[in-house]
Amino acid sequence: MHPTTPQDPLAPENRPAMARRALAWAVDFALVLAAAYAIGVYTVHQITDVWDNAPQLGVSTWQLITGDGDAIDRAGQFATSLWHQVVTAVIQGFLLLAAATFAYHWACLTFTGRTLGKALLGVRLTPHTPGRTAARAAVTTLADVGCFAFACCLLISGHPVWSVIAWLGAVAVFWFNALSAYSGRTVADRIAGTTVVNATYEAPAPQPAYQPSFQPPAPQYAAPPAPPQYAPPMPQHHPQPHPEPSWTP
């Protein structure tokens, strides 16, 4: 534990209570479930269209009962084709759900710093630059939806053992990410370099660029001496000698 300051997002007064964070997550996850329901309805319609638009098999029930090899082969190929289309539709639905979850978290966090759940519970994310929010949305999507969707895809693709292992891994990833919030930051926050804080938290002002403590004094330049002032020479007065008077008798 490093010491915290009032401006540190991990300071106790800046960290939201765990109950508020859990409620904020519940609101956001309810939106994810609503999206999953809508995508599920769309997927069911796709599967129904596949069945309705399937070509005629051209095999009678009597041929199947009597064990007609050619008819059985054609029926098997028909069923396999339909099943592959159904599996494809389901996998596409899970991929669409993961993409929608990522887009929701990334867009909300990038442009406002909070999802709907965070806004309702008075918490937000800092900092919320596009790169950091993309990393956080990716980890959140993986923990909340991605791992479980992968396990379901394995199951419907005919890999039940790997599906069980994926389910156990999904549960572990979900709880590891959720319980790490007790330290102030979830795994998603640590990977993205973000922190969930109270909405009233004010980030410290950016510090000026580093300046060395010692700065040489600026050179002092003496003013150039004033040019000498030359006074014009004063006219010199030279007295003229007076002629001596001459006396004539």
Summarize the structure.
With 249 residues, the protein is mainly α. 57% of the residues lie in helices and 3% in strands.
Could you walk me through the main structural features you see in this protein, from its secondary elements to its overall organization?
The protein is mainly alpha-helical and 249 residues long. It is built from seven helices and two strands. The chain has helices spanning 18-52, 61-65, 69-112, 116-121, 130-156, 160-179, 187-192, and strands spanning 123-126, 195-198. It has a two-stranded antiparallel ribbon with strand order 1-2. α1 (18-52) runs antiparallel to α3 (69-112) and α5 (130-156) runs antiparallel to α6. The longest helix is centred in the middle third of the chain and has 44 residues, at 69-112. The termini are far apart.
